[in-house]
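Researcher: Please predict.
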Amino acid sequence: MREVLEIKFWSIPDSENNKCSEKINKGSQLREAFKMLDANFFDDTKVLDIAREAKELNLPIFAANRELVTSENGGLHNPSCLIFNPEWTDEQVENASNRFSYPTLSGIQRPKTEEDIAFMSILELGELIRTKQITSLELVQIFLRRLKRYNPVLESVITYTDELAYKQAKEADELLAKGVYLGPLHGIPYGLKDIIAVPGYKTTWGSRSFKDQVLNIEAWVYKRLKSAGAVLVAKLVSGSLAYDDIWFGGRTRNPWNIEEFSTGSSAGPAASTSAGMVPFAIGSETAGSITYPAARCGVTALRPTFGTVGRTGVMSIAESLDKLGPFCRSAADCTVVLDTIRGKDPDDLSSRYIPLDDPFSVDIKRLTVGYTDDAEMEVVNVLKSKGVKTVPFKLNYTVDSVQGILNFTMDVEMLAHFDEWQRTRQDDLYEAQDQWPTELRRARVIPAVDYVQAQRARRKLIQEVKKSFTVDAFIGNATDWERVCLGNLVGFPVIVVPTGFKNISNPPSEGTRRRTTITTGIYARPNHDHIALALAMAYQSVTYHHKQRPPIDNLGPSDIMPYPPTTIPHRRLHP
């Protein structure tokens, strides 16, 4: 019988044998490729069928969809219809429709030096303007001088908006002369992270691929600030395509230790606010870009509940993760800015009017606040002394792939917004090849099925965190990577608060004024940003860490920044 079979086999023409061999080889090769997708359970016949049908059916659909929505990079248009909502409850907070009631400051006098003016809070500067001790034009001149003085060292500014700033300052001063006062941001200078579009000025996204890009779009957050009388003085550094602190013009430094880099893509807002180059700035976070640079540069910054601030006109990484938030001198300043920029953006499907209570009116004595093993205990003790009930706390959840879920979500959604950029090989020009280029090439082979499975796992994580979040707020490390991923996936708010300083590593033998900042995070449930803000204000009301000034003018008697500077080890995933 064997001989008969062998005769029949060998009687097949060579051309047929070759075709069989080619099919077997092709099937084997495809199966190897399927291993990369964790789908190597198909036999050769099924793999070949899949390849044929994908070519006939899938590829034309891919091409048609790309033609519809991917011609422009950055996710500025054609948002996804899949909307993430972080809400845990339908509970309504009292005074949901009201704006916050700001404290009245009395006896504020104009300081004698520009340095002292530069480090005043928003509320203090606002009182100087309201009482006509200083004009918006004078403030613009002060802060533009500081921006241009320190930027050569810090590399935190991409574009100065002098002409616009003088125009807006003049309008603010004229309104005040007519008796019209718009509130505490009236005439106050500020900066925007350069992923936020302003007509007539470049919006570079920090990338050499887009360094000459001008978007004739007025970002929603810019509209809100303009309507409150705030004055834009600069577009501040975003890490390239909102990833870490490297951009097409250099790498942004930490004002508290200019040998270090600022880390995180909201590098410009953090460094500029820390150095007194602007009273406040707007940054963004997808996965650590508010918390990391705020902690490194020693400023107070708020990552709000997802959906609190509209994102129209802002470069998008991940529609289900991106958030805008303020970098400020204090929690009170963050409260003022948040009150201005929050609300429903009609063109951002994820934004909503979140019913926040007034942070200035929260009775913190009625709150129970947890503290984790890595919390700064000074914060815990101060709040306890003010009547807050404090308890040890830990968020418990069984989902063990938090960082992986974040990675999948962010990278797939980012690639959807920069599909054309990758297909035209512009990623070869990217400033740091181990960042977006590597991640987005890997994202190209994440199956749609597994992206959806990641979102199902994300939902399970949210349910477990909701069940475990048994306190009104908790205090813990703001830069723990697992917690950064968790907080962004769940969408809950955190405010980063400076809590002190320590000596830098390997200081010069004769000493230095450079310091390493110490910070902590105060976390609240989604839609309860007012709780985190109230607790941070209570802590800062009796401490002065947030009022300290970095030593950018005087490092010490024999301290000179080395050139080239020490490189801080690169951290993964800081969009």
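Model: The radius of gyration is 27 Å.
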